[in-house]
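FW: tagging you since you asked about this chain on Friday. Here's the raw sequence from the shared folder, copied in full. Didn't touch anything.
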Amino acid sequence: MKLKLKELESRLQQVDGFENPKLLLEQYPTRPHIAACMLYTIHNTFDDIENKMVADLGCGCGVLSIGSVMLGAGLCVGFDLDADALEIFSRNAEEFDLTNIDMIQCDVCSLPARTSKTFDTVIMNPPFGTKHNKGMDMTFLKVALQMAQTAVYSLHKTSTRKHIQKKADDWKVKMEVIAELRYDLPASYKFHKKSS
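HL: got it, structure written out here
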């Protein structure tokens, strides 16, 4: 069965998010609309999900992993440091009765070399490297590039595009902007003055 974009988004709206997001880990939910658009494009335009081994770095509560499996990933493995987020991820996966999905609690930044080229596709909404984690988005990208055989799909702030392009050139990889999406980020921390 081929899922339509709206169907995928509707299903992803049922995925539970963070109960107590951790500022130091820059935990922001990947909104269902963005997750659906991202995954639908990866699947339908680039054919990088169906029957593929997919890794989701900084998976949080698993919305990208779950969406990948809904689109027919052979196996999706989420990697995250936070046990609380992975607990929610696990409940979400059970709720949807998904079996070809797994999660590993680890520090993405120190994934061992043996994970090199073990996945067809890597997807992620990495920490943007603001506040206390300067450069974290680039560290995640570097790890993702080591893990992926085919492609890495990652969400980034438009303001970092030139920097990412420079890094991609340095790393001798092709970078392409596939879509520009508006990120509807609700105020989730005390220092947020208003929703964006």
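FW: Residues 118 and 147 are 6 Å apart (CA to CA).
HL: agreed, and The longest strand covers residues 148-154.
FW: great, closing this out.
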